[in-house]
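Schema walkthrough. Field components (list of strings):
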Amino acid sequence: EVQLVESGGGLVQPGGSLRLSCEASGFTLYSYWMTWLRQAPGKGLEWVANIKQDGSDIHYVDSVKGRFTISRDNAKNSLHLQMNSLRVEDTAIYYCARGQYGVDPWGQGTLVTVSS
Amino acid sequence: DIQMTQSPSIMSASVGDRVAITCRASQGISNSLAWFQQKPGKVPKRLIYGASSLQSGVPSRFSGSGSGTEFTLTISSLQPEDFATYYCLQHYSYPFTFGPGTKVDIK
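Field assembly_structure (string):
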């Protein structure tokens, strides 16, 4: 069974940092692009970033460029999102998902709260 | 960036109704569109990819159509478990963008 499990969320002050992780099982991570998405409380879905199988191609939404870094460790079947200079508006559930385009499946998500 | 709109934003419907949700792109996106269903407190689930291909395991009452700038998600006979919010996602050009969602609730 394909499974994605996110971790690393929590409460952080504005300007702080967090590193999210996504552990994949049931499939070989190196065969797929991987994606991060997010959903602010009570709001819609937002695509955040994705990364090619070997890490050679990466894309971000403009609002996180220069602050967030997506990476992967295929040997450990894991995906990461390093989030720096966090803002209140980054508060959201962060999901990892398999694939480049019509992403599927998604993990259960991890909540990031940016507040003083 | 490509802007996605959806209509209606909220829809009240009854079990057995035929439901159609429209998604429009601000520029042509070929068939680079997926549809997702999200129930309250749950993870989004992909229903349709490539604008019209049904995800494995998804009931056949769901269908997708369209190309270019206008797309439709149709539920042929609404079931109780279909009350949810539906989102479209364009993956034609970066950054990929979602529509604002359409909430289907009970009439």
